[in-house]
Amino acid sequence: MENTPEVKPAPKLFPLIVERLRSQNYSNRTEEAYIQWIKRFILFHDKRHPRDMGTAEIEAFLNHLAVEKKVAASTQSQAKSALLFLYDEVLERNLPKLENLTKLPAKKELPVVLSKQEVQAVLSGLEGTMWLMVSLLYGSGLRVMECLRLRVADIDFDRLEILVRDPQGYKNRTTLLPGTLVHPLKTHLASIEALHAEDLSKGLGEVWMPEGLAKRYPNAGKDWQWQYVFPSSRLSVAQQSGGVYRHHADEKPIQRAVKNVAKQLGIKKTVTPNTLRHSFATHLLEGGHDLQTVQRLLGHANEANTKVYAQLVNTGGSGVSSPLDVIKPIV
């Protein structure tokens, strides 16, 4: 009698999705977003398994987001990317082209920018580590998560440069470190180094390392140079490994702080941490720096993304002075 080959059960879907995302070095934020979109897709179709669905179901879900939920174009695009990743990379199915999508026009709104006086007022309303982080957003043109993910090794005080690491490791860039932040940053790092030493004395002190760096430097997780510049005040346990790490600080406090100080100052604009980055770019262009330099510092792959700031470099609404401002008043 022939032995019947053992039939192994198919791996559970979501652990497999997480494994594929991490093997391709997707960021934690992207991982969380993709997982949520895939869950919403499954729930929308009454908990059917994705392998039993395809192009028609994807189009129905994405059109539902556009027509009934009225989401932004970027939101629909992210949901689409999550589902294509699911079918291309996890289920390994080549789907026909999505030809029946209700495509949303991308909003072409100009970014909110603060004047130099408003930036100074915002910074004056902050103190300590919060002031330092927001100063880096404006002084170096960092995104919030880029600031929070900075490692000690990324700061070059001699060259006045900051290495900004792409989470996937493909688009690292350098930007400038303001000279005025050298002393405050060194003082801050001294206190962080003391915290790290205390963690080490307790048998802790390890930081999460991207997969590529972990393979290259397998024992570097406890080294001072790889610690976060802005670490969390609390330790956390990694779900997949059970390891205890001190992760970087959370973005929510910095978002609240910037919003609250702008409100207290009476600034009648929608001010977020990214407003400081937009202001960095606009003020550099106003100072005479060329578009290519600003594009490189911001890390924009497309020059068109940087050109939007050129529209904000003007006087008044159209870059011209009102004739009322040049005539002599009647006495």
TrEMBL record:
Belongs to the 'phage' integrase family. InterPro entries: CB, DNA_brk_join_enz, Integrase-like_cat_sf, Integrase_catalytic, Integrase_integron-type, Integrase_recombinase_N, Integrase_SAM-like_N, Tyrosine_recombinase_XerCD. It comes from the Bacteria. Residues 109-322 form the Tyr recombinase domain. This is Integron integrase. It comes from Methylophilus glucosoxydans. The keyword Flavoprotein does not apply. Keywords: DNA integration, DNA recombination, DNA-binding. Residues 11-91 form the Core-binding (CB) domain. Signal peptide: none annotated.
